[in-house]
Please model this.
Amino acid sequence: MFKVLVSDPISDFGLQQLRNAEDIKVTKLSGLSEEELISIINEYDALLVRSQTKVTRNILKAGINLKVVGSAGVGVDNIDLDGATILGIVVVNAPDGNTVSTCEHTFAMMMALARHVPQANAKTVSGVWDRKSFLGVELQNKTLGVLGLGRIGIEVAKRAAAFGMIVIGHDPFMSEERARKLGIKLTTVDEILRTADFITLHTPLKRESNYMIAKPQFDVMKPGMHIINCYQGGIIDEGDLVNALDEGILAGAAFDVFEKEPPTRDHPFLKHPKIIVTPHLSASTLEAQENVAIDVSKQVINILRNEPFKNAVNMQTISSDHLNRLHPYFTLSEQLGKSLAQMTDGAVRDVTVGCAGDLAELDTSPLIPYVLKGILSHHLGAEHVNIVNATHLAKERDLNFVTQKSLLSQSSSNEIMIRMKTTKEEKSVRGSLLPELGERLVQIGPYPVDIPPSGQVLLISQMDRPGIIGRVGRVLGRSGINIVTMQVGRNKIGNSALMILKIDKKAPKNVIEELYMIPEIRRVREISFD
Model:
């Protein structure tokens, strides 16, 4: 008899299949402290949580019979994934359970915005019969721009097509072929801003997407644009959006999310006549709450019965000896992937991982999830990617990944090389673990380097000419940016070279632009390892 502990409030309807299983006994105990959980967890084969219970390494270690930890939702930030991996405990979540809920809320907001439903309702119930003030627009034949074509963005696009809308979209991982099958025209963010009648955002918040829509973007928008955000606050500059509404650039906006939640009572969105707001209701449906519980319960049953399962969010199970030999290279693999993602342009298509030294004799496929996590976390946001859903997310985006020992020539040292091909270019990096120094990047493309993967690093591709280093130093110095270390990688005097600068803070956009004004500089990339 398997024993399952449910330590957070989870839909009883969703748990019913667990309760109906003859070989499973379910116990529901909410509000337990870490100490209380540690004292009883050794009795259970599975633990089900939402977000309240913090599944620490101490809890996992005490769970000597634990085979699976299930999260009834998408997030697993409250679960020690590395601890679970090392202890051989599978962690599963339910990433699809709220897809329809969020999609439908997005469409509800879009239609309410097009027809002024909340404003008309408020005026009507106040006793005023006013039809003239609420002239709306139809969705049919309007262009919808979808920024972010993950599960939710795709579902929104499908429904928009059913309404007779023209759907254009942008996502760095969506292939032209898949987009064509879905009836979506892939294009640039700039083209969406200039041509769409409605825009809906489904892209995660990260450094590059913070305020990705602000005054410069509003200034080029098609007049009369409607914008909907039911996904993530902070992607749109809220103050600039209000100004765009007041200037007549935008016809209306609908928001389910705010940069800071809950918003302050004086937040301008709350009183603006052209803005519709809801209190982060995207996943708040009975069905969504039930679906995530049903999904995770099914996976727990399959794992306990040693049947096939999906949605594992930690690495594949491997022998303890194999794990011990590969474990030191997990962080290096992730940092190599993260560096490549920031060096390249275009949508990622192929990732190949090669190993040398003793590593070449091992099955190094468990390194792939860490490489993919590094690559995808740059594009999707670190909070949305972990070491095994990275594989799932990569497959969703038509990203091919393999291990290939022949990538590296025979070497006595243990090294990892990653080669990444995008729709625009192909680049490679090589890394190693050095005694007492830890992880290092030892080669970027053809150039030998020695970089600890930490902090902020500027990579400057240049022609190998005298005086460039001094000019770069002056540009950075004028902006108060200290150079911590510097090195130059080159193959032949007078040809192309790579300057590597470790700096003490992020370089502003104007500094990057000023560096490009130096004639010998061909390309500047800032790599953040934080």
Summary: The chain has 18 helices and 22 strands.
